[in-house]
Write a structure and sequence with these properties.
The structure is a single chain. Helix content is 46%, strand content 13%. The chain has 271 residues and is α/β, with parallel strands linked by helices. It has a single domain, classed as TIM Barrel, CATH 3.20.20.20. Helix 2 crosses helix 3. The protein is globular. It starts with a helix and ends with a helix.
C-alpha cells in the first residue's frame, strides 16, 4: 500500500473506529458480536470511510491488558469477514506482534500501535518484514495508569521529541520512512490543557515530516468544554476535527463516519 499516495489523493482521510470490546469508553462504539460489527463496517464504507480501524483491547483510562488469544478472538473473524466483502484498507489497533500477524494474514493492511512499537519488541521487526504502514502514537504510561496525574513542562516539545524518537527507532528496525504515521495521542496521559495545546500545535507536529493522525472523537476533554457525556459529544467532535483539518491533520480517527465525511467535504470546498 502506498499510504502517502492515499493521503495525498484523499486528504484528509476519515478512519472509522470499530471496537470489538465490551468496555470502550463510548458505548455506541462497542461491537462485540461479529454480525453487528460487520454491519457497522458496511455502513461506514457506505458513508465514505477511507480506512477501518479494528480493535480488540480497550485503551480507555483505567483499562487492563487483554491476552493475545482473547484479542485475536475478537478481531480476526471481523477482519477476515470485511476483507472477504470489501477492499477498504483495514487498520488493526494492537500492541502485540501475534495479534498483528494474525490480522495481516486475515487481510489487515496497517498496524496501529498505541505504544509506538515499544510494548512488544517483536512487532517492529515484523512490520518491517511485511512492509506495512504503522501508526505510532504517543502516550504516557499505560491505559491503566496514564491519567494518574500526568505532567509535562512543555507538552508540545515532549510529544514532538518522543514521536521523533519513536519514528527513528522504527526506521532503525527496518520500517520505511514512508510507512510511518504519527499520532500525538489526544487523551492518552494528557491533561485538559495538554490536549488543547497539542491540537493548536498541529502545524508543529506536521513539521516532523510524517502524515499526522488525530484521534479526538468524543473524548473527555470535549466533555470538559461542553458539559456533555460521551454520547452527546458529536457536535464537539466535529468542531474539533474541523479545527484539526484547518491546522493540517491528514487522518481523522472517528466514531461518527457519516457526519465527519460530510464535514470534511464542506471543509475541503471552503479551504
Amino acid at each position: 500500500m502506498d499510504f502517502l499516495k492515499l493521503v495525498r489523493d484523499n486528504a484528509p482521510l476519515v478512519m472509522g473506529i470499530i471496537n470489538c470490546t465490551p468496555d470502550s469508553f463510548f458505548e455506541g462504539s462497542r461491537k462485540s458480536a461479529l454480525g453487528e460489527a460487520l454491519k457497522t463496517a458496511r455502513q461506514m464504507v457506505a458513508d465514505g470511510a477511507h480506512i477501518l480501524d479494528i480493535g480488540g483491547e480497550s485503551s480507555r483510562p483505567g483499562s487492563l491488558y487483554v491476552s493475545a488469544e482473547e484479542e485475536m478472538g475478537r478481531v480476526i473473524p471481523l477482519i477476515a469477514a470485511i476483507r472477504k466483502e470489501m477492499s477498504i484498507p483495514i487498520s488493526v489497533d494492537t500492541r502485540k506482534k501475534t495479534v498483528a500477524q494474525a490480522a495481516i494474514e486475515a487481510g489487515a493492511d496497517i498496524i496501529n500501535d498505541i505504544s509506538a512499537l515499544s510494548d512488544d519488541p517483536e512487532l517492529a521487526p515484523y512490520a518491517a518484514r511485511m512492509g506495512v504502514p504503522v501508526i505510532l502514537m504517543h502516550k504516557k504510561g499505560t491505559p491503566e495508569n496514564m491519567q494518574n496525574d500526568p505532567f509535562y513542562e512543555d507538552v508540545v516539545s515532549s510529544v514532538c521529541e518522543e514521536l521523533q524518537s519513536a519514528a527513528e527507532l522504527a526506521i532503525a528496525a527496518g520500517i520505511k520512512r514512508e510507512n510511518i504515521i504519527l499520532d500525538p495521542g489526544i487523551g492518552f496521559g494528557k491533561r485538559f490543557k495538554d490536549n488543547i495545546d497539542l491540537l493548536k500545535a498541529t502545524p508543529r507536529l506536521k513539521e516532523l515530516g510524517y502524515p499526522l493522525l488525530i484521534g479526538l472523537s468524543r473524548k473527555r476533554f470535549l466533555g470538559d468544554i461542553t458539559g456533555r457525556d460521551a454520547g452527546g459529544r458529536l457536535a464537539a467532535s466535529l468542531a474539533a476535527n474541523a479545527f484539526s483539518i484547518i491546522k493540517g491533520a491528514h487522518i481523522l480517527r472517528v466514531h461518527d463516519v457519516c457526519e465527519t465525511v460530510d464535514m470534511v467535504k464542506v471543509m475541503s470546498e471552503l479551504l
